Amino acid sequence: MTGLDIFKLLPKTNCKKCGQATCLAFAMALANAKADVAQCPDMNDTARDALEAASSPQIALVKIGVGPDEAQAGNETVLFRHDKCFVNPTPLAVLISDRCENPAAEALKANNLVFDRLGQMHGINLLAVQNHSGDPVTFCETVRSVSEKTNFPLILVCEDSLAIEKALEVTGAKKPLVYAANEENYKVMTELARKYNVPLAVKGRDLDHLAGLAEKVAALGHRQLVLDSGAQNVRQVLADQTQIRRQALRRFRPFGYPTIVFAANSRDPLQAVIEAGVYIAKYAGIVVLPSADPEVVLPLVTLRLNIFTDPQKPAAVDSRIYEIGSPGNSAPVLVTSNFSLTYFCVASDVEASRVPAYILPVDTDGVSVLTGWAAGKFTPEKIAAMLKESGIEDKVTHRRVIIPGGVAVLSGKLQDLSGWEVIVGPVESSGLPAFLKRRWVAEKA
Ligand code: SF4
């Protein structure tokens, strides 16, 4: 809605209760998402409903699980990342069959699958327990056994409502996703989802059928939905995911929910990575993987990190002193930029050298050393100021600082400004282990 569309719905009394000088100013603030509908106490119910519907997200936010490990999908507002950004990194689930010999061990394996990327820990987010046995008791026992060994939220993959009911008696309080309601079982599945207040996946035979089924479930009063178009091969899944996202953004309500897809039923890791990678990029809300093998999960976690990074926000670390190992007062001092990727490359190469050191990432607004130098953000003045103000002078007794080899040109002026002896380090941080051993440890000895 434009500001004028919104203005037509307002009381037009200019009473200022909303904090704005006029109703028109409030309308403009609402149109720019800088105000909330609730701030106008005098709006009538019809106008409020219309404005709330217009301002609600095109794709509903669905939460699975409780507490800090809760997984979220949905709330996306764009088709292309560069239009704004993608919001919720696609939760990755790992499938555990109820025919698996030791489901608890599979859960523990998934728990331990954690990767450090740019200083943050990443891994899978959900465990999907699948009823392969056809036996409600076996399924329920598998769900119980997995649930006891993990904090990951669960997906209950079973279309037998009796088995789902038993599993919900065990794990309902942990708010699992129930997968899935179909044409035959949707009434009883919706009733169970409503009773336990858990999200429910809706599985169609194709897009038309899915739209109709989602409407029927929503009409029964449940709106924590996740969509599955029923497509099996990559090409059809990709086409369906794209259509669902396009229609959702046009406010086609039956598709206004996140989706779920299953990657590669085979255990071929390469195929699983390719399929899941396509689905993360194009537009799956949740991706279920066939296994928790590191060679499958690591590339997907890296891809997800790239796609869901906000392109408008530089990835930066705080500009302060970082200690690698337990550096003493004679440890080397290195400066670099505060671009996350640069900092973590330098930090990992210093770690590899086994020479305890101090790293000072200069605030370059999150750009790399060379970009920062070219943009006037990695300058002798800023480095000298950091050497003086960071507190490093109290931590070391020497006055020798190592700068990146790519900006050797800064050394003269930096030495004059700071009074520190400037040592030009390697051009690439991968040269740091050999450099530190040669120039610091050997010289000291
Ligand atoms: Fe207008 Fe409502 Fe704001 Fe009053 S509170 S000025 S009626 S928008």
Characterization of this structure:
- An eight-stranded parallel sheet has the order 10-9-8-7-6-3-12-11. The protein has a five-stranded mixed sheet with strand order 13-15-14-16-17, sandwiched between helices. A two-stranded antiparallel ribbon has the order 1-2.
- It has three domains: 3-55, Orthogonal Bundle (3-methyladenine DNA Glycosylase II, Chain A, domain 3), CATH 1.10.15; 62-307, TIM Barrel (Alpha-Beta Barrel); 322-444, Rossmann fold, CATH 3.40.50.
- It has helices spanning 3-9, 23-31, 45-55, 103-111, 136-149, 161-171, 186-196, 207-219, 234-249, 269-281, 294-307, 340-353, 369-374, 380-389, 392-395, 411-418, 432-444; strands spanning 62-64, 71-73, 92-97, 114-117, 120-123, 126-130, 154-157, 177-181, 200-203, 225-228, 260-262, 286-289, 322-324, 333-337, 357-362, 400-403, 421-424.
- The mean pLDDT is 93.
- The relative contact order is 0.08.
- The chain is built from 17 helices and 17 strands.
Unreliable stretches covering 5 or more consecutive residues: none
Strand content is 15-25%
Bound molecules: iron/sulfur cluster
Q: How far apart are the termini?
A: 72 Å
The CATH superfamily of the largest domain is known as: Dihydropteroate synthase-like
Return the average pLDDT rounded to an integer.
93
Numbering strands along the chain, what is their spatial order in the largest sheet?
Answer: 10-9-8-7-6-3-12-11
- The radius of gyration computed from the alpha-carbon positions, rounded to a whole number of angstroms, is 27 Å
Kindly report the CATH topology of the largest domain.
TIM Barrel
CATH-scheme architecture of the largest domain: Alpha-Beta Barrel
